[in-house]
Specification:
CATH topology of the largest domain: Pseudouridine synthase
Helix content: 10-25%
Number of domains: 2
CATH architecture of the largest domain: 2-Layer Sandwich
CATH class of the largest domain: Alpha Beta
Strand content: 25-35%
Distance between the termini: 34 Å
Number of strands: 15
Order of helices and strands: HHEEEEEEEEEHEHEEHEEEH
Largest sheet: 9 strands, mixed
Number of helices: 6
Radius of gyration: 23 Å
Length: 230
């Protein structure tokens, strides 16, 4: 790795600031002053700034995708398209989905190489706010929505209601504990079937300005906000 890039990866300073430190002769590699930005740092090299050791930090990747229908996060589902095939241009190496989304699920999905974050988000009683627009196979009455809200055994639904401008077989739902699979199971046991479930909000993130099928990396501010919400 180029020396200026290595320094930036230590989060000690930006790459531009690293170039200034190099130009001033303040960077040493294996106790020798190096001024060339293009110097290749090899495994085992010791890089210091004014005798302070600089160690490369792991840089995790976070990709946000507005998932289209018919794609799944389950590589074993042979009847649907695997989500990683949608992001070939982004290099899916090392990326995993933060949670499961099946072929009928669309909307906000986070892919990351940060396995510790994925484990944290999926802790059994971890509160992670998610907002959905759900299309059912038939109209749902207010009494059934109230019954859904009372379910507290394996899931925590904060709110659920009909949505203005949509037919009576649609509901808006906010959930903090439980997975989409658990939610689908609860709804199925009530005699309804989910035709489509669209997630618009997840752990402080939204799909605003992200069209269906589009992908983009998380901004640093979004990453901080997400980690703050969990």
């Amino acid at each position: 790795m180029r020396l200026n890039k290595y320094i930036a990866h230590t989060r000690y300073c930006t790459r531009r600031e690293a170039s200034r430190l190099l130009a001033r002769g303040e960077i040493k590699v294996n106790n020798k002053v190096v001024k060339e930005e293009s110097y290749r740092v090899m495994e085992g090299d010791e890089v210091t700034h004014l005798n302070k050791p600089l160690q490369e930090q792991i840089v995790y990747r976070y990709l946000l995708i507005n998932k289209p229908k018919h794609f799944t996060t389950d590589i074993g589902d042979k009847d649907s398209k695997y989500i990683m095939g949608l992001i070939k241009k982004e290099d899916p190496t090392g990326l995993i989905a933060v949670d499961h989304m099946g072929p009928k699920s669309v909307g906000l999905l986070l892919l990351t190489s940060d396995k510790a974050l994925v484990e944290k988000l999926n802790q059994k009683n971890r509160k992670v706010r998610r907002v959905y627009l759900i299309e059912l196979n038939k109209d749902i009455e207010k009494k059934d929505i109230n019954k859904l809200l009372k379910n507290r055994k394996t899931i925590k639904i904060e709110s659920a209601s009909h949505v203005d401008g949509y037919q009576a077989n649609y509901i808006g739902l906010e959930m903090t504990i439980g997975s989409e699979n658990i939610l689908k199971g609860v709804i199925n046991r009530m005699g309804f079937e989910i035709q489509r479930i669209d997630r618009s909000y997840y752990a402080g993130l939204t799909k605003k300005d992200l069209k269906r099928g589009w992908i983009r990396p998380l901004q640093e501010m979004e990453e901080r906000m997400m980690k703050h919400f969990i």
